[in-house]
Q: What sequence folds into this?
């Protein structure tokens, strides 16, 4: 993705900083809605109010593993 911004959660998992990973998103039918602006937004949209979703903040916390998306090699236990 061109010009993508990434952040890391407390466990070092890289998270793409876009609307799809924001805590302020919701869905109505198949449409992504911003809970702050109440407007329809695209998946890759990002605004100054972006906050990491709770699920992504907790990624890497439990006993699961993180695998490389292409090789399926375990990269974080």
A:
């Amino acid at each position: 993705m061109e010009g993508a911004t990434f952040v890391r959660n407390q466990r070092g998992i890289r998270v793409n900083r876009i609307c799809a990973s924001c805590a302020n998103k919701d869905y109505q039918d198949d449409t992504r809605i911003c809970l702050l602006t109440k407007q329809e937004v695209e998946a890759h949209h990002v605004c100054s109010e972006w906050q990491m979703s709770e699920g992504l903040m907790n990624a890497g916390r439990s006993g699961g593993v993180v695998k490389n998306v292409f090789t399926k090699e375990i990269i974080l236990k």
The CA atoms of residues 66 and 76 lie 5 Å apart. The mean pLDDT is 83. The beta strands are 6-8, 14-16, 25-28, 31-34, 66-67, 74-76. The chain has one domain: 6-76.
